[in-house]
Amino acid sequence: MPQSLSREDALTTAVGCLQLLQSFQLTDIEVEFREPVFTRSVGPKLLKSVSSTNATASVCGPLTPALGLPIAARDTPYAEGTGALYVSKGCDGSERVHVLTARHVVFPPNPPLSRSHPPGPKAFQTMLKSTMVKIGEHKIMVDYYNQQLEDLQGGDSDDDDDEREAIQGELKKAEAAIEALNQFHDKATNPRRLPPITVGAGAACYTEDWALIELDRNKIDWDNFKGNAVDLGTEIPVHNFISQMYPNLLANATFKYPSNRLLPLQGVIGEDKLCRPQMLDANNEPCAQRT
After folding, report:
1. Are residues 112 and 196 in the same domain?
2. Is there a contact between 139 and 178 (Cβ–Cβ < 8 Å)?
């Protein structure tokens, strides 16, 4: 660690190293100590969200698991984005955890040409196809071995028993190979699920630009994890925030400002409501519609 070794200790150690080398008649070697430069390759464990009265409430947001988690690819740190949604098979973090983000954050349109990423896209796809071919071949053999075992049913001779045992051994090998290949395929593809950016996708012709990135679940304190929640922050006072939520004073106010500032995601807003909000503005008129 920097500044952890004194000059005197370094000198004593260097002299001892030289004496050891000289005892083996190695005299053309120099011993030198240099202070290392420590660079953390991964970020710290995400922190627990704190109350508004905490002095760090206004600054610690980016280091908490609240939605909007800042992210960037290691090779392209200049292209930053945010995590929009956590996705997990289990609710306690025991399964793989992914975060939804934009594809162009993970793979910017113009990455540095000086960097290469083995394997390349073509080689990677070739490897995946070869894996699936192998899985298919073993599945064919599994069906074949099962058919052989079915044909041997009722046979009680020693030859039948020997043949049945040999076939069962080959069947287990094929099934084990399928499991191993499937695990390999998952490991190769699950960390990054990145469909290509598509313009005019679907009937509504939206732009499809998303990626599902696997996270290191050890970076999340699951005992304090609040799920998919948005930190409303401290910049907007509570009364101003609520007023902005309901510009029409005659409307029924159902929104309640969370005491911990963490607003959990609930339900899904349909496309029609996104384009045609049903709220009324301060003049008791429908909010602007998007076409």
Report:
1. yes
2. yes
Judgement on whether residues 81 and 179 belong to the same structural domain of the protein: no
Residue in this structure with the two tokens 């290691």, named with its chain if needed? 74
Round the average pLDDT of the chain to a whole number and report it: 79
Q: How large is the C-alpha radius of gyration of the chain?
A: 30
Q: Provide the β-strand partners of residue 98.
A: 87, 214
Taking 50 as the threshold, does the pLDDT of residue 127 lie above it? yes
Residues 203 and 100 in one domain: yes
Does residue 241 register a pLDDT over 60?
yes
Q: What is the pLDDT of residues 145-201, one digit of tens each?
A: 999 988 888 777 778 888 989 999 999 999 999 888 888 777 666 545 566 777 877
C-alpha torsion 108→109→110→116, nearest 10: 60
Residues 244-289: pLDDT tens digits?
887 777 767 778 899 999 999 988 888 888 777 777 777 777 776 5
Specify the pTM. 0.54
> How many structural domains is the chain composed of?
4
In this structure, the answer to whether residues 103 and 168 fall within a common structural domain is no
Question: What is the domain extent for residue 1?
Answer: 1-35
| Cβ-proximal residues to 271 (8 Å cutoff; 6+ apart), any chain | 204
Residue 31 and residue 160 share a domain: no
CA-to-CA distance for 234 and 257, rounded, in angstroms? 12
- Distance, in Å, from the CA atom of 265 to the CA atom of 66, rounded to the nearest integer, reads 11
| 114/214 same-domain check | yes
> How far is residue 265's CA from residue 68's CA, in Å, rounded to a whole number?
13
